[in-house]
Design goal:
The chain is an alpha+beta fold and 706 residues long. 32% of the residues lie in helices and 22% in strands. Among the domains are: 248 residues, 2-Layer Sandwich (BirA Bifunctional Protein, domain 2); 104 residues, no CATH class. Strand 13 and strand 14 form a beta hairpin. Its EC number is 6.1.1.15.
């Protein structure tokens, strides 16, 4: 299959984007208004222009210039009609794959109560990111950043029997998070659209099967976007639970780090990614100097414990660049890794007498740590006189050695013998969590197991007849706004935006020349109808009252994707291209002739201005070959053809400026037109090749069937 990259039909088809065929059309004049059955850009508000592109413009800037959105406030955006079309198509794609797992759509309230979040014991951990408000009765409320508490309370108040399970409910709604530093447009905003799927099962085994089905639906959803993505093992964080995966789109502007093995496919977020257990750097027969040890200091959340992380020194690495803080936090969960200088905070707690020091030791240093301990700066010099309690962590919960080194490209994979690890910058666009009973226990979402006739799954899991069992929950999110912004960032190029066909605002845009209006309507109807109305395309006519050059530049901001065309459709497109090539080639010749005439006029005016003063004699043509001498009454004034059939008197200087501007204007138009003609010629050949490939593929299938 050819990697076809095309943009524009009925205009210059430009090679772009590896996800399929894009079609766009050009026009010098507008098309007569399409009837009400056809989509037309004249009926859609698309405010483009007036915003200068920056040299290092990100995808977000192109979304603004392309008329998809505008910023309302810091981290808050207004979606315009084109942007809403993209968002709606993402939602429809989500709806399709949520139906595949039997999920029902609902809508939960944006406003939640602080009391409910306090009951789930989550209020304080996320408090800095909450938008908080009070009603007239001073009831503390929040704008929900997520809805685990609300959905659990809803189900707890309705579901009492295990026979009502499983339950799979989802919503697509606005969420709010008070980001400290909103950036990259939709990628890190304060108001955003998300899909949340909440699942409720009776047993752990059933919850795991639900998780598997949802994961398959997520993969199918991201497959349909036809973009590369990574599914990474992840931490559950404040959400709770013990099974979690993230769905990432690799991108240089990504804020997440994903580790991937080039052999076995092991993929994990850097928070949970592991290295092979370290081999010891020293066997204990001789003690290395203390200078071989590097230390990083942190502090606990209660400010009473100083954490020293000890690991081998590597040349050229700073304490932060060589240390994996996630590994330290796994060993000491109470670590507050956000504090850059912990010593003043910890020193202030020394007087209480309840302070301690926790030494976290890399496995390569364990055999010799005790022998060199007295040489190491366990405490800063100014704090040495104080007596504190010391403890050491030198292994994982399973008894393996700690590896505190930061993962780098080429490190050995922990899951296979052959693989090497690769580091990717990525944008997280989806996340699946198996929550267990994290919310169902504190919010009392339970069902009663019958004393007789216990379900087979409950019996297999050892649930007690007659007991109340908390529901097993799952939470599965997709960032709709995040996908919108991520696709723009990842696929945008120097010309403009590119969209996967599944979420493009339109699949085909047609901008016909004035003498091809009827043909454009036939092409519209052909593409929109598809093959027996089964695969009709989402087509739009650009019938706006704008110039050819303006539409060209505007179209570059809106590449519209088309993955497949039937051979008869491609043949019609090729015919349209050939006709427009002929039209544009003729226009090019006419513009070139007009420019030459203006150049001749300019030379005449300049020669007259350079003539000696008092030289008013001229040769006046009587026929094509007969001239007579004459005298100019006013040598400083000439008659100028302004291009509309009218002659206007102008002074020589004014006439010279007029003709210079005309020559320059036509020169710019000729350059633009030359580029368009070259692109059309290239893309006509591309269409021919695509058509040839399709015909050959069809013949091959016919031979196989025969």
């Amino acid at each position: 299959m050819i990697d076809t990259r095309i943009a524009r039909i009925g205009g210059s088809l430009i090679q772009r984007g590896p996800w399929g065929v894009q079609l766009r059309a050009l026009s010098v004049t507008s098309l007569a208004k399409a009837d009400s059955q056809r989509s037309a850009l004249s009926t859609i508000w698309v405010p483009t222009g007036g915003i200068t592109a920056n040299e290092d413009e990100f995808g977000h800037g192109k979304l603004v210039r392309g008329g998809f959105l505008r910023q309302a406030h810091s981290g808050i955006f207004q979606l315009l009609p084109l942007g809403l079309r993209v968002q709606d198509k993402i939602e429809k794609l989500i709806d399709k794959h949520m139906r595949s797992v039997g999920a029902s759509r609902l809508s939960l309230s944006t406003i939640s109560s602080e009391e409910l979040w306090r009951k789930s014991d989550r209020l304080e951990s996320v408090a800095p990111e909450l938008f908080r408000l009070k009603d007239r009765k001073e009831t503390p409320l929040i704008l929900s950043p997520t809805h685990e508490e609300e959905i659990t309370m809803l189900v707890a108040g309705i579901v009492n029997s295990y026979k009502d399970l499983p339950i799979r409910l989802y919503q697509i709604t606005r969420k709010y998070r008070d980001e400290r530093r909103p950036r990259h447009g939709l990628l890190r905003s304060r108001e955003f659209l998300m899909k949340d799927l909440y699942t409720f099962d009776l047993t752990t085994l059933e919850a795991v099967e639900t998780y598997r089905q949802v994961s398959a639906a997520y993969r199918a959803f991201f497959d349909e976007l036809k973009l590369p993505y990574l599914v990474a093992e992840a931490s559950s964080g404040d959400m709770g639970g013990d099974l979690s995966h993230e769905y990432h789109l690799p991108s240089s502007v990504g804020e997440d780090t994903v580790i991937n093995c080039d052999s076995c496919g092991y993929t994990a977020n850097d928070e949970v990614a592991t290295l092979r257990p370290p081999s010891t750097a020293y066997d204990g027969s001789e003690s290395p100097p203390a200078s071989h040890f590097r230390v990083w200091r942190g502090i606990s959340k209660d400010r009473k414990a100083l954490i020293n992380a000890w690991y081998p020194r590597s040349s050229g690495a700073s304490a932060e660049s060589g240390l994996n803080l996630h590994a330290v936090k796994s060993a000491v969960p109470e670590l507050d890794a956000t504090i850059e200088d912990p010593l003043p905070l910890w020193g202030a707690s020394l007087e209480s007498g309840t302070t301690k020091v926790i030494n976290v030791v890399d496995g390569r240093l364990v055999p010799v740590f005790e022998s060199v301990r007295d040489q190491l700066p366990l405490l800063p010099e100014d704090l040495q006189p104080y007596q504190v309690e010391y403890s050491t962590i030198d292994s994982t919960a399973s008894g393996g050695g700690l590896n505190l080194a930061r993962i780098t490209d080429g490190d050995a994979c922990p899951r296979c013998e052959e693989g090497a690890l690769k580091i990717h910058r990525a944008l997280e666009c989806g996340h699946t969590f198996q929550l267990g009973t994290r919310y169902s226990v504190p919010l009392d979402a339970c069902v009663t197991i019958p004393r007789s006739g216990i379900p087979a799954a409950a019996a297999e899991e050892g649930l007690i007849p007659g007991s109340r069992i908390p529901l097993q929950m799952g939470c599965h999110g997709v960032g709709v706004s995040r996908i919108f912004g991520a696709v723009a960032e990842i696929l945008a190029d120097e010309q403009g935006l590119n969209w996967p066909r599944a979420i493009a605002p339109f699949e085909v845009a047609i901008i016909p020349a004035s003498d091809l209006a009827e043909d454009s309507l036939r092409i519209y109807d052909l593409l929109a109808a598809g093959d027996n109305s089964r695969n009709g395309l989402d087509v739009v006519l650009d019938d706006r009252q704008r110039s050819f050059v303006w539409k060209m530049k505007d179209a570059d901001m809106h590449p519209l994707n088309l993955d497949t065309l039937e051979p008869q459709q491609l043949a019609q497109v090729k015919k349209q291209l050939d006709e427009e090539l002929e039209h544009l080639t003729t226009s090019f010749a006419q513009l070139h002739a007009a420019q030459n005439k203006f150049k001749d006029c300019l030379r005449c005016v300049k020669s007259r201005a350079a003539a000696p003063e008092g030289s008013n004699s001229v040769l006046v043509p009587l026929t094509n070959s007969l001239y007579v001498r004459g005298e100019l009454a006013d040598a400083d004034t000439v008659l100028v053809d302004v291009g509309t059939g009218f002659l206007v008197e102008k002074k020589l200087k004014s006439a010279e400026k007029f003709y210079e501007s005309k020559v320059e204007e036509l020169g710019n138009n000729l350059k633009d037109l030359e580029v368009i003609v070259q692109r059309k010629q290239t893309n006509a050949r591309t269409i021919e090749e695509v058509l040839r490939q399709k015909i050959m593929a069809g013949q091959g299938q016919g031979d196989q069937q025969a």
